[in-house]
Design brief:
This protein is mainly α. It has one domain (about 15-155): Topoisomerase I, Chain A, domain 4, CATH 1.10.132. It has six helices and two strands. It has helices spanning about 15-35, 60-70, 75-80, 85-105, 110-130, 140-155; strands at about 35-40, 50-55. A two-stranded antiparallel sheet has the order 1-2. α4 runs antiparallel to α5.
C-alpha cells in the first residue's frame, strides 16, 4: 500500500479512520482522567477563607484533540473531505459537541461559551454535509422533478 505524504514530504499520521478514532478515544479518556483544578474559597467551617483546589471536568475540544493527535485544526477539517475519514471526523465532532452541551446543561461549563462553540460548529457541519455526495434512485419523472425543486430550494 502506498503511503500518503504531505506537501512537505512527511508521512500523514492518520490515513485510516480506525487510527483517528482510537486516538480520539485516548484523548477523551485522558480528559476524563485529568480534570482541571479550580481554586475556590471556603465559605464556612474550620477552613473558612482558605483557597482549595476542586477538580472539575475537563471539556473535550477540537483544539485539544488536535494537540493530542499532533495535527493542526486544518488537518482535522480536511478529514471531512475524505471518503475514508469523514464518518470518523463527524462522529468525533458529535462526541465533543455532546460533552460540551451536557457539561453546559449540568452547569459544569459556561453555557454562553458552549452555545457559541456549538453554533459555530453547526455552521461548519452544514458546509461539510453539503459536500457529502449521495445518490437517490427515482422511479418516476414527477418525483424526480419534486426532488430537484427541493434540492434547489435548500441548496440556494
Amino acid at each position: 500500500m502506498k503511503k500518503r505524504k504531505l506537501r512537505n514530504g512527511k508521512e500523514r499520521l492518520y490515513t485510516h479512520s480506525d487510527k483517528l478514532l482510537n486516538t480520539a478515544f485516548e484523548y477523551f479518556a485522558w480528559c476524563d482522567e485529568n480534570p482541571l483544578l479550580k481554586k475556590e474559597l471556603m465559605r464556612s467551617g474550620e477552613r473558612k477563607g482558605e483557597l482549595i483546589e476542586v477538580p472539575v471536568s475537563r471539556p473535550y475540544t477540537i483544539s485539544g484533540l488536535c494537540v493530542f493527535c499532533q495535527i493542526s485544526e486544518a488537518t482535522f477539517r480536511s478529514f471531512f473531505r475524505s471518503d475514508e475519514m469523514c464518518a470518523a471526523a463527524l462522529h468525533i465532532q458529535d462526541i465533543i459537541k455532546q460533552n460540551q452541551m451536557e457539561g453546559a446543561i449540568a452547569g459544569i461549563y459556561n453555557s454562553a461559551i458552549v452555545c457559541r462553540l456549538v453554533d459555530s460548529s453547526n455552521v461548519e457541519e452544514e458546509e461539510q454535509l453539503k459536500r457529502i455526495p449521495f445518490v437517490v434512485k427515482v422511479i418516476d419523472n414527477e418525483t424526480k422533478e419534486e426532488l430537484e425543486d427541493l434540492r434547489d430550494h435548500f441548496m440556494s
